Structures are given as C-alpha cells and as structure tokens.
Amino acid sequence: MASPRFFRPGGSSLIPALGITQVVGYGTLYYAFTVLAPRITADFGWAPEWTFGGFAIGLLLGGAVAPVTGSLIDRHGTRLVMTIGSALAGLSLLALAEARGIVSYILAMVALQAVTTAVFYDAAFAALTQARGGQARRAISQLTLIGGFASTLFWPLTSSLLAVLDWRGVYRLYGLAQILVCLPLHLLFLPGRVKRPVTAAAASAPSAMTPEPEAAYLTGDARRRAFLLLALAFSLQGFVVSAMAVHMLALLQGFGLSAAVAVGIGAMLGPSQVAGRLTEMLFGRGVSPVTTAWVSAWLMPFGLVLLLLGGSFPIVAGLFAIAFGISMGLSSIVRGTVPLQLFGPVGFGATMGKLSAPGLVIKAAAPLVFAISLERGGVMLSTLLLIAVSASAAGALVVLARRAAPR
C-alpha cells in the first residue's frame, strides 16, 4: 500500500507526476506540430513559410514572458503557476484548433507558446528546486529521464491519430489532455507557495543528504560572465533543437531516406535521450554539471557530421540519432543543474527565466530559418549550418568550464 507521504504535495510523488505532465506537455505543445504542420499548411492553402512563421512569432512573442513567469514562480510557488499554465495550455490548443485565418492562427500560437514557459522544463526544474533546495540535481536527472519519451510517444501517436482525425481534431484532443491530465497532477502534487523563500544561508546549510561537490556560488563579474556564456550556449543549442524538432523528418528524407525509415530513426531520439540521462543519473554524481554540459554538447555537432557524411545510409543516420539524442537528453539536465551549481537555488525561477530570455529570438527564428534553408540551400548546406551553430554552443561551454566554474 502506498505511503500517505507519497501523495503529499512536493513529496516522492512529485517526480512521477511531473514526468507525466512533461511528456504530455512537450508532446502536445511542441512535438505534435512537426507531424501536423503539413496538414495545417494544406488546410489553409498557404505557403509553408506562413505555417512555420506563425510558429516562430509564437515562440518569439510568447516566450518574452519567460522572465515574468520565473518571477511569479518564485513569488507564488509552482503549484499555482503550473496549474494555471495547464489550464491556459488546454484553452490555447482548443483556440488553435478553431483558427480560421492567419490572424487567429498567429494569436493562438502566441498564446500557446506563452503558456509553455509555465509548464515546460524550466518551471518543472523550479518545482524540484523549491521542493529539494540545493539537492535538486538528482531529481532533475530523474525527471528528464521520464520526459525523454515525449517525442518517441507523440510523433507516432500523432501520426496514428491523423488516420482518424484531422489536425484540428488532434489539437482538440490534446487540449483536453492538458486540462484533464496535466492540470490535476500539477494541482495535487506540486509544492505550494514557498512561505520561507530559500536564502543564501539556508542554501548552504548542512543537509541530511550527501552534499553536492559544488559548494560555492558565483558572484560579481564572474557570475555575469558565466551567465552570458551560459545564455549564449543555451540560445545556440536552442536554435538547433528547435529547428530539428520541427524539420528532422524532412531533413532525413532530404538525404534520401523513405518517410517510414525517417520516422523510425526519429523515434530513436527518445530512447537515446533516456539512455544519456540514465547514464548521467547513475554515474554522473561525481562529475561537475559544467563538465557534463560541454562534453555532451560536442556530441551534437559530432552526430550532425555523421549525418552529413553518410545520411543516405540508415545505419549512419541511426548513429546520428543516437549521438544527437544523447546530447539533447543531457542538455535538458544541464539546463537545470548548471545554473543550480553556478548560481545556487536562491531566486532559481527568476534565474531560469532570465537565462531563457536572450535566446528567444534565436529559438523562435529557427523553424522558419531552417525551412528556408532547406528549400533554397538543400540538406547539405542546412546541415553545415546546424554543425556550425552547435559547435559554437559547445565552444562557449568549454570557455565556461575553464574560466567561470567555481573553484
């Protein structure tokens, strides 16, 4: 029989509850668009640039609320913010399903992307930090381990649903999932308002748990330099991940792979993310998060080089998916653990919001820029673009590890 403590808000039920909401959240609000975009374009009868442009505008304008969301999380707790976020996410999906023209489509996309800041990983990491304090690293790894299945589940699920529903019907179903699944889980299991905000003294106080190897947090100029390098790396990685989340299947088919093979290789991303996260969770405790960040970041351009050299061969394309997936999986972890290591748990929600803000334009532009690149430059030039951007992100993390990590 389950212990009553398991069901206590912020207790041991927190990770599985957030795991479900992250899988459903990323699956319905993000990955489904990859499969539905061609149907949306055909239904409206406009050029693909309008479909991806609306998505980009949504990312840009909607994501601008990230710093505000972070501040609200610090002030009112994640339960309130993520519960309201789930309700608004469901309503936004329902509104998108009813869009009848470019104006209503863009407005729905803006609303949709605005609420993602209240339900995606940044908010979930804040929930874990509020519940676990400075000892949240392992919990973050466990959460991302579950969340890695979002693309693996929702790409084929969305494709299957299109056999019986149109894209509007799929989004209506996903809107209900946000309201009926994610909203109750956030309401019941997340920690409430932080009545005693984490302070610097509390953050460094002794804990019954084994302390992390990192004890000191950056201040002054060192903190500012680290923040800028981290924001740059996250922004550039966000460009690559955002572009691939929308266009990966088209890119693989551009190398000559069939649609079925492309979907199969794309489905390998989820297990690869989980494998990388599981390895980090089991063996990475003694490794600095900054080290994990730059080592894993180099797997992304490495995988893309493999794709560039042998993307027409399914085995080589599969190796790309494994390397890229592991890098994606670990990047999700370090997105929470590196700021926690460098800056500490004080004001963590606001810190995550500010880190997200500089990359809004880059991440928002990625789907549209890459769509144009694929159409006009072809798969080779487009892949070279991704290699250059991802290598720059990895380089920034190397500089961060050498110059800004606490000693």
What does this structure look like?
- This protein is an all-alpha fold.
- The chain has one domain: Up-down Bundle (Growth Hormone, Chain: A).
- It is built from 17 helices and no strands.
- The radius of gyration is 20 Å and the shape is globular.
- The termini are far apart.
- The model is unreliable at 195-215 (pLDDT under 50).
The unreliable regions are 195-215
Q: How can the largest sheet be summarized?
A: none
Domain unit count? 1
H and E order: HHHHHHHHHHHHHHHHH
What is the assigned CATH homologous superfamily?
MFS general substrate transporter like domains
Structural class: mainly alpha
Quote the distance from N terminus to C terminus: 46 Å
